């Protein structure tokens, strides 16, 4: 069986109903979930397995959002659901706070819920109506997805990160229909959990339904739609050009002046990634406005303990509170008309970070840090 088939205990293509071990949502999706929930249900079936995170637009930047967040708090109190405010991004906080313990099947009201596949679980994002039904019933239905197997061999180079690997993979799969398919990763997984979460997170941008990384307990001997083998040592620093993550090019071939750098998000806001950024920026000074957004307050506190915060601030970086920050273009670094943004996030669609007339390039934290110094997209292989 494939990993997904093992986790759901069913063959690809089958429609199954399964109990859900964990349901979570965030401040951006809960209002619609509440509206849908109240049409059919009065009580959440398993409130101890449901969690709400304030991470997308927090603290509230407008009266409208403040009022919506008040409604969320009222719903949570009514239903006995725990809210995490100021903890950081949901996908990061769920494992940090031990909420994954004993969980195998997880749904989240956010498209990047498959980030948790780094821990060997079946995690999928769902819309407001489906999430509301799961809250009311404690279970949901799935069509078991077919899987694509990705074999990783060797090791990444010193200036190459998991983000580069995933930009490479999305380029390989750009002409392959990944709709409602799963990505399963094997071999070459002696990476940190921080980098593994980047792999699972960015898998969504191939249009995959979910992603799972082998943790050594799965057979992985099922029937796969396709098998891809990647030699990690051959991957170079890459960048996604506007306006899609699959529009990939080698960094050395892209020379573009930039106005802003953002390093963070649920893709690349974890401790190992921010350590690398601090190493590069130590003793240097950024030449464009540069924002760093830790994925959680635990990471934020560790940055202080390790001196990462001091090095970033000394280099001229603005460190944001834990959360999604400017990734979705709502606050804390919105892109203006005609601006060129280099970001370590997962999406660079028109208008994603603010103005539809801005251009967003995606790259690894290493490439982003080097580029922040030089004020243009720069190949780290040339300067590190």
UniProtKB/TrEMBL annotation:
<protein>
    <recommendedName>
        <fullName>3-isopropylmalate dehydratase large subunit</fullName>
        <ecNumber>4.2.1.33</ecNumber>
    </recommendedName>
</protein>
<dbReference type="GO" id="GO:0009098">
    <property type="term" value="P:L-leucine biosynthetic process"/>
</dbReference>
<dbReference type="InterPro" id="IPR015931">
    <property type="entry name" value="Acnase/IPM_dHydase_lsu_aba_1/3"/>
</dbReference>
<dbReference type="InterPro" id="IPR018136">
    <property type="entry name" value="Aconitase_4Fe-4S_BS"/>
</dbReference>
<comment type="pathway">
    <text>Amino-acid biosynthesis; L-leucine biosynthesis; L-leucine from 3-methyl-2-oxobutanoate: step 2/4.</text>
</comment>
<feature type="domain" description="Aconitase/3-isopropylmalate dehydratase large subunit alpha/beta/alpha">
    <location>
        <begin position="15"/>
        <end position="213"/>
    </location>
</feature>
<dbReference type="GO" id="GO:0051539">
    <property type="term" value="F:4 iron, 4 sulfur cluster binding"/>
</dbReference>
<dbReference type="GO" id="GO:0003861">
    <property type="term" value="F:3-isopropylmalate dehydratase activity"/>
</dbReference>
<comment type="function">
    <text>Catalyzes the isomerization between 2-isopropylmalate and 3-isopropylmalate, via the formation of 2-isopropylmaleate.</text>
</comment>
<keyword id="KW-0432">Leucine biosynthesis</keyword>
<dbReference type="InterPro" id="IPR001030">
    <property type="entry name" value="Acoase/IPM_deHydtase_lsu_aba"/>
</dbReference>
<feature type="binding site">
    <location>
        <position position="266"/>
    </location>
    <ligand>
        <name>[4Fe-4S] cluster</name>
    </ligand>
</feature>
<dbReference type="InterPro" id="IPR050067">
    <property type="entry name" value="IPM_dehydratase_rel_enz"/>
</dbReference>
<comment type="subunit">
    <text>Heterodimer of LeuC and LeuD.</text>
</comment>
<dbReference type="InterPro" id="IPR036008">
    <property type="entry name" value="Aconitase_4Fe-4S_dom"/>
</dbReference>
<comment type="similarity">
    <text>Belongs to the aconitase/IPM isomerase family. LeuC type 2 subfamily.</text>
</comment>
<keyword id="KW-0028">Amino-acid biosynthesis</keyword>
<dbReference type="InterPro" id="IPR011826">
    <property type="entry name" value="HAcnase/IPMdehydase_lsu_prok"/>
</dbReference>
<feature type="domain" description="Aconitase/3-isopropylmalate dehydratase large subunit alpha/beta/alpha">
    <location>
        <begin position="255"/>
        <end position="375"/>
    </location>
</feature>
<dbReference type="Pfam" id="PF00330">
    <property type="entry name" value="Aconitase"/>
</dbReference>
<keyword id="KW-0456">Lyase</keyword>
<keyword id="KW-0411">Iron-sulfur</keyword>
<keyword id="KW-0479">Metal-binding</keyword>
<feature type="binding site">
    <location>
        <position position="327"/>
    </location>
    <ligand>
        <name>[4Fe-4S] cluster</name>
    </ligand>
</feature>
<keyword id="KW-0100">Branched-chain amino acid biosynthesis</keyword>
<keyword id="KW-0004">4Fe-4S</keyword>
<feature type="binding site">
    <location>
        <position position="324"/>
    </location>
    <ligand>
        <name>[4Fe-4S] cluster</name>
    </ligand>
</feature>
<keyword id="KW-0408">Iron</keyword>
<dbReference type="GO" id="GO:0046872">
    <property type="term" value="F:metal ion binding"/>
</dbReference>
